[in-house]
Design goal:
- This protein is of the alpha+beta class and 73 residues long.
- The chain has one domain.
- It contains 3 helices and 2 strands, in the order H-E-E-H-H.
- A two-stranded antiparallel sheet has the order 1-2.
- The model has no long low-confidence stretch (mean pLDDT 88).
Length: 73
């Protein structure tokens, strides 16, 4: 796949690659040169579990919710 470098050095990453690699608006890419080639690596801040820990707001303590789920069996 080819892309043209714009006047200000910008390049559009082809949609098929963005979709395949999970590159969305706000994704941080690290650019470096390796043996004369430009390499872009998607940075993932922390591990994936740590990024979502605490994102849910629960109406009750976790222990209570688990107990309620067990009672429904």
């Amino acid at each position: 796949m080819n892309a043209v470098v714009a006047e200000r050095g910008q390049v559009t990453i082809p949609k098929t690659l963005r979709d395949k690699l999970g590159i969305t608006p706000g994704t941080v890419l690290d650019f470096r040169e390796e043996e004369g080639e430009l390499v872009a690596v998607k940075l993932v801040e922390g591990d994936r579990v740590a990024r979502v820990t605490g994102c849910l707001r629960l109406d009750a303590p976790t222990d209570q919710l688990i107990a309620e789920m067990r009672d429904r069996r």
